[in-house]
């Protein structure tokens, strides 16, 4: 378990005791930066360590120099995000650029740059880490041995800037520079017990020209608290730019990645809290970085400009399944500024609920209170809740809208036309008015406590190389380990089968996703272990232990071969993990329409994947996201077919918390033949089984999951398309572009498709398999870590 050596019991490793309370906001339009000129020589011009916690709010554009974290006068030394969203470091050796891109706008990165030019090996002279992961570079322009860097006496140093070039846009916290030591990320952070990289207090010395900026003094944000007195002078930064959005309490902002409309993107500024519509011809919309599935929430928005288009300002909330291009019309609850009418519209853009309340315009302060459990939304203006009589969110009465579906993920929404501008206030200390009793601010600390804080305890991707030997143990490498109930293996470099093994059918029993019945192979997977599985010499023609590279996706069930379940009309054998919402169900068909099978989850399943073990029948898939009446439809895992309607699969009967129903199709229910079903129910913070609409653009749809995904599988439903799989290990950084397809024997490909992010994923391709314009898609996703939650440290950006 790779993280165990970094766990420090009793410190943040035991639950995140160390907190960061303040950050400072850098706003590019204000040319925000801080500067300091050393008056004395440093301890060393060859050995330095820089540590930042940063949250990005904008991306660079082609032709610019990007966004600078740190630089010196004359561009003699700097680190910045380049226009391709990669980290670029310039030293006396030239420029090094990371292979990884960094485009997560919703969470915090920890960046450590450690330099020691006295080292003999070039790669040891400069090391860059992001969230402790050491980065690889394009090229080899490392500084020469014993070279002095441009960090000397009298050379101005800039934070968030470099001389006269491209200010940083975003938030910084806990900025530490150590002069004279090459340190590691473990001096500034550690893995907590859930495997999340979190800050810890730096306990070392700083050297002559080192400094520590904690931004705790709003009246003097550049104060060095290291004891060295190396204070920085702010420029374009005021006391209002001290904020409580930090790596340990990550606050909602408007999401730069979930932004658009027929007229282009909303312009975001001031830490992505000011949203400005610029199109004079059509709507533009942007959603927030946090979603509300349960609980009570409050935020405010000041309407700071409007002009002649006040009627087009329509703030509110929006379900993530609505394409952002149509967010004003579909799955949204909002109020129109000019008419004062509040609407809830469903996915067909039909009005479900409406009423006339109070208009608003330039200078007004709008209040929002949303009860996700009750499906109620209140709008207020300038301290008074709308309605006659006035609404009372604390009492739950007279809501502006009361027909909002529950159990779904709703995000704050800005929608406007030309000159519409709103300033959002998600932080409690920035509110003008008092939240109703029981309503909370939108930050990760207030999200519900997730049932699973460490996704690696229930799902893992393991990479391995075959060796054609008996007893080849494949050990999991995540923060936690488990005995896998289901193991799905694919050769990454040869056109071989997808192999599936599970504990209910037992060792030696293999299924492939190609049309074949189960076979028995005593030289493939020969044991399920407490932390992985064991392979044998594998002399078959479709090997999983030859000298190739493989990926193994593993899910935890209950660690046994299952127990008898008589909840349905067919008695099943089920290995059930109710915590993670996964069960492996074996049953024998009876060819009776309306037969039911017990699954043991205690929740209605969202996904059911069924295979006939005794015949070469197609794999059948039920997915709750294909339609509102998903039980009438099915997909086929081994083909590209679009979703189809057939009563003979699920008997047009929705699964319940105890059973799923069968028709009499041979693929799911032939008399006396044996079947296996992999059954999944959504668990907030760990799994998501949803749907989205593509936009046909390389700046593709953003899909909220509520966690940082470890595995995603996507399928187009309205037309043909491959079952496309991504995970967090095969590339290891964004663009997470190593693609495999469940329905083919194809080898791994490296076309850029998707960014895996702290709270979901972002499509980065217009490929029809994942993002054709107007097409509908379903997906399955499992978590590496939840985005946050009460008592849970927020996950870093990726």
Describe the structure.
The chain is mostly beta strands and 798 residues long. The protein has five domains: 4-243, Jelly Rolls; 254-442, Jelly Rolls; 456-555, no CATH class; 563-680, no CATH class; 687-786, no CATH class. It contains four helices and 59 strands. The strands form eleven sheets. Strands 1, 3, 8, 9, 10, 13, 16 and 18 form an eight-stranded antiparallel β-sheet that branches. Residues 1-16 have low confidence and may be disordered.
Helix/strand class: mainly beta
Task: State the total count of DSSP E strands.
Answer: 59
Q: What does the average pLDDT come to?
A: 92
Would you identify the regions where 5 or more consecutive residues have pLDDT less than 50?
1-16
- Kindly identify the CATH topology of the largest domain: Jelly Rolls
CATH classification, class level of the largest domain: Mainly Beta
Return the CATH architecture of the largest domain.
Sandwich
Count of DSSP helices?
A: 4
Structural topology:
Layout: E1 23-26, E2 33-36, E3 47-56, E4 67-72, E5 78-81, E6 87-91, E7 94-98, E8 109-116, H1 122-125, E9 126-130, E10 133-134, E11 137-138, E12 157-159, E13 170-179, E14 189-191, E15 197-199, E16 211-213, E17 233-235, E18 242-243, E19 254-260, E20 267-269, E21 274-276, E22 284-288, E23 296-305, E24 316-319, E25 332-335, E26 341-345, E27 351-356, E28 365-371, E29 376-381, E30 384-385, E31 410-416, E32 421-425, E33 459-465, E34 472-475, E35 484-491, E36 498-502, E37 509-512, E38 519-520, E39 525-529, E40 532-535, E41 549-556, E42 563-565, E43 572-577, E44 582-588, E45 595-598, E46 607-612, E47 620-623, E48 633-636, E49 644-645, H2 647-650, E50 659-662, H3 666-669, E51 674-680, E52 687-693, E53 702-704, E54 707-716, E55 724-727, E56 740-741, E57 754-756, E58 760-763, H4 768-771, E59 776-786
Antiparallel strand pairs: 1-13, 1-18, 2-12, 2-17, 3-8, 3-13, 4-5, 4-12, 5-6, 6-7, 7-11, 8-9, 9-10, 13-16, 14-15, 19-22, 20-21, 21-32, 22-31, 23-28, 23-32, 24-25, 24-31, 25-26, 26-27, 28-29, 29-30, 33-41, 34-40, 35-36, 35-41, 36-37, 37-38, 39-40, 42-43, 43-44, 44-51, 45-50, 46-47, 46-51, ...
């Amino acid at each position: 378990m790779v993280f165990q050596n970094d766990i420090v019991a009793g410190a943040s490793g035991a639950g995140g005791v160390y907190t960061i309370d303040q950050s400072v906001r850098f706003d590019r339009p204000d040319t925000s930066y801080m500067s300091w000129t050393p008056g004395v020589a440093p301890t060393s011009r060859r050995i330095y360590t820089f540590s930042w916690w940063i949250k990005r709010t904008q991306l660079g554009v082609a032709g610019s120099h990007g966004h600078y974290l740190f630089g010196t006068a004359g561009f003699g030394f700097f680190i910045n995000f380049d226009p391709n969203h990669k980290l670029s470091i310039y030293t006396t050796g030239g420029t090094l650029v990371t292979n990884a891109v960094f485009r997560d706008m919703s969470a915090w990165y920890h960046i450590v740059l450690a330099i020691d030019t006295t080292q003999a090996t070039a790669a040891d002279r400069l090391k860059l880490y992001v969230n402790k992961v050491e980065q690889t570079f394009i090229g080899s322009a490392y500084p020469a041995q014993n070279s002095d860097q441009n960090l000397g006496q009298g050379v101005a140093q800039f934070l968030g800037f470099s001389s006269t070039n491209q200010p940083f846009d975003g938030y910084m916290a806990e900025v530490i520079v150590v002069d004279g030591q090459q340190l590691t990320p473990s001096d500034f952070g550690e893995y907590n017990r859930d495997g999340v990289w979190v800050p810890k207090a730096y306990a070392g010395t700083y050297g002559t020209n080192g400094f520590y900026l904690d931004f705790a003094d709003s009246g003097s944000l550049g104060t060095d608290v290291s004891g060295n007195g190396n204070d920085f002078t702010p420029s374009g930064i005021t006391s209002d730019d001290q904020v409580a959005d930090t790596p340990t309490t990550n606050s909602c902002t408007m999401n730069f990645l979930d932004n658009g409309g027929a007229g282009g993107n909303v312009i975001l500024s001031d830490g992505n809290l000011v949203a400005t519509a610029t199109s004079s011809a059509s709507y533009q919309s942007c959603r927030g970085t946090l979603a509300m599935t349960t609980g009570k929430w409050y935020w405010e928005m000041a309407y700071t400009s409007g002009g002649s288009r006040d009627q087009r300002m329509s703030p509110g909330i929006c379900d993530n399944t609505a394409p952002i291009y149509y967010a004003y019309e579909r799955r949204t609850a909002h109020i129109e500024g000019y008419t004062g009418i509040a609407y809830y519209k469903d996915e067909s853009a039909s009005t479900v609920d409406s009423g006339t309340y109070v208009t608003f315009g330039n200078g007004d302060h709008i209040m929002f209170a949303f009860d996700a459990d009750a499906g109620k939304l209140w709008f207020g203006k300038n301290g008074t809740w709308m309605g006659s009589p006035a609404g009372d969110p604390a009492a739950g009465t007279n809501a502006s809208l009361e027909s909002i579906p529950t159990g779904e993920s709703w995000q704050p929404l800005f929608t406007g036309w030309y000159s519409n501008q709103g300033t959002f206030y998600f932080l409690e200390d920035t509110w003008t008015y008092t939240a109703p009793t029981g309503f909370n601010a939108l930050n990760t600390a207030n999200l519900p406590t997730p049932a699973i804080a460490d996704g690696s305890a229930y799902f893992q991707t393991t990479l391995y190389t075959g060796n054609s030997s008996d007893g080849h143990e494949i050990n999991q490498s995540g923060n936690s380990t488990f005995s896998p109930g289901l193991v799905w293996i694919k050769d990454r470099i040869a056109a071989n089968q997808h192999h599936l093994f599970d504990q209910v059918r037992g060792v030696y029993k293999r299924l492939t996703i190609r049309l074949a019945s189960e076979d028995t192979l005593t030289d493939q997977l020969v044991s399920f272990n407490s932390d992985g599985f064991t392979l044998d010499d594998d002399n078959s023609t479709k090997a999983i232990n030859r000298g190739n590279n493989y990926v193994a996706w593993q899910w935890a069930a209950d660690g046994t071969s299952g127990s008898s379940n008589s909840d349905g009309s067919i008695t099943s054998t089920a290995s059930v993990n109710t915590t993670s919402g996964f069960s492996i169900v074996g049953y024998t068909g009876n060819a009776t329409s309306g037969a039911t099978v017990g699954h043991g989850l205690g929740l209605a399943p969202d996904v059911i994947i069924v295979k006939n073990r005794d015949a070469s029948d197609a794999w059948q898939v039920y997915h709750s996201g294909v339609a509102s009446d998903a039980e009438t439809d099915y997909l086929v895992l081994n083909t590209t077919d679009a979703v189809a309607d057939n009563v003979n699969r699920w008997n047009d009967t929705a699964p319940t918390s105890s059973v799923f129903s069968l028709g009499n199709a041979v693929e799911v229910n032939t008399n006396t033949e044996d079947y296996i079903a992999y059954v999944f129910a959504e668990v907030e913070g760990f799994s998501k089984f949803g749907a989205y609409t593509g936009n046909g653009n390389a700046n593709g749809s953003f899909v909220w999951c509520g966690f940082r995904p470890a595995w995603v599988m996507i399928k187009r439903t309205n037309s043909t398309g491959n079952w496309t799989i991504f995970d967090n290990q095969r590339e290891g950084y964004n663009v997470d572009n190593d693609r495999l397809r469940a329905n083919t024997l194809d080898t791994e490909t490296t076309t850029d498709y998707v960014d895996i992010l702290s709270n979901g994923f972002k499509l980065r391709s217009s490929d029809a398999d994942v993002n054709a314009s107007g097409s509908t898609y379903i997906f399955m996703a499992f978590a590496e870590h939840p985005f946050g939650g009460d008592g849970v440290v927020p996950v870093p950006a990726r």
